[in-house]
Amino acid sequence: MPTRTKPVFVFLASAAAFAAVAMALAFWILQPGNRPQRSAEPPVKLVIGIVLIPSFGNLILAQEAGYFDDQGLDVTFQTYQTGQAAVTDMLAGKIDLALTADTPIALEALKGARFNVLATTYESSGFLKMIGRRDRGIAKASDLAGKRLGTIIGTTADFTQDSILAIHGVDPKSIDRVSLAPAKAVDALTAGEVDAVTIWAPYSLELIKRLGDRAVVLSDDAVSLTTLNLVSREGLVKQNPTKMRHLLAAIDRANTLARADPDRALRILAKALGISETEVRADWVPANFTLALNQSLVIFLQDQARWAIKRRLVDATAMPDFMDWIHADALAAIKPQAVSVIR
Hints:
alpha/beta; D-Maltodextrin-Binding Protein, domain 2; 5-stranded mixed β-sheet; 11 strands; 43% helix
């Protein structure tokens, strides 16, 4: 007697039912009150340095949604104007971890500082914008020669500014760099103290709003890709290897929330940042949130190390092996497919 086979529609119906259950479960987990049982162990206290802007939003979401608590972590945020300042305090032992763009990582590694890069949490070509003033004769990047450029020294904005100059054939010796704190950039360009600045949101958005038709955006997506990366003080991963995995798991869960329910995530973030939902939405791209350690990060760091050496921002002259700073074990334990660095 031939073996009977089930009709195809039975298998399709079963698959559809399974998918529906999986989607319902994922939605249920994201709702307040439907969280995993917390550990009975005392929570591990961690202080993380961040900048209070939407691009740092997945860590803020993890905090506000209680995901760190669920993982047995007592997380406190210390706020800074730049990731560079957060890294400085982390290296001084004042905080445990910092979220920073790639340039401070390259600079501190060149200086011989010891720390661990745990994961990239954000990646975007729109994070930074170079904004010039049309009424100062700037219509394109090549017009920057001989101009006064507001520069946040030693940051990714500084690196991106020099990259744009190089691509458009502007001799860096022809420009006048004016060192600015991020909070001073808007007033400096608006008042005409400088002719252009390279800066991130919300400062970039405020500048475009204030200058109106006088503003020209000179950013180049080919050179303005920025990553934000979670780094920890040396020894922390050895002291708390399990909790580092829990920390990354909470951030990954926040990424899921941002993508699955962006409206709810936006409301949470607006309330936490103390700004309007409209302001958050102007710099809100959930797809930019990630959790990875890609080989591209190593290449970015090498590029910035060469730049820093050429600019003489550091005394070092040799390229470091950035794999000595990357700690992939924690991320590989919870999300192995997200690790592509070549060890």
